[in-house]
Write a structure and sequence with these properties.
With about 150 residues, the chain is of the alpha/beta class. A five-stranded mixed beta sheet has the order 1-2-3-4-5, sandwiched between helices. About 30% of the residues are buried.
Amino acid sequence: LLKAMWLLFSFSTHLLYKIIKIFFKKNPSKPVLCTLAEIDEMNGYKFEEFMKYVYEQLGYSVYQTPLSGDQGADLILTSKKRTRTAVQVKRYSGKVSNSAVQEVVAAKGFYKCTEGIVVTNSYFTDSAKQLAKANFIDLVDRNELEKMINILLN
């Protein structure tokens, strides 16, 4: 009888462990808001995850595209009004060139989005700014990113 009780206890404990493990795997801990210095130390994928979290906190439904073969967008935002926006996320130490703008322009068509955004922890070249303006792409540079983070912190 004691052995049967021990087996039942062991099985219950193991089952509880599996349930907790599955729950936390489906609901991983959310990233916390970071400083720009911390963002500068992230790799590109972590920055994408961070921006996904930021846009979710701003009220968007966010789809994260595959890490490779993303067709020019890292995130697809859907607003409450159902507007779809392709987002290209660039964690750079130098200025972001117009290739990032070209990527998000292509992604708009591929993902059937009406808007496009390029987000960076850095700044944009003049050429990127000109191309973005001509294609109605919003640019979020280091200064704008800091403003977004501050909105969420307050």
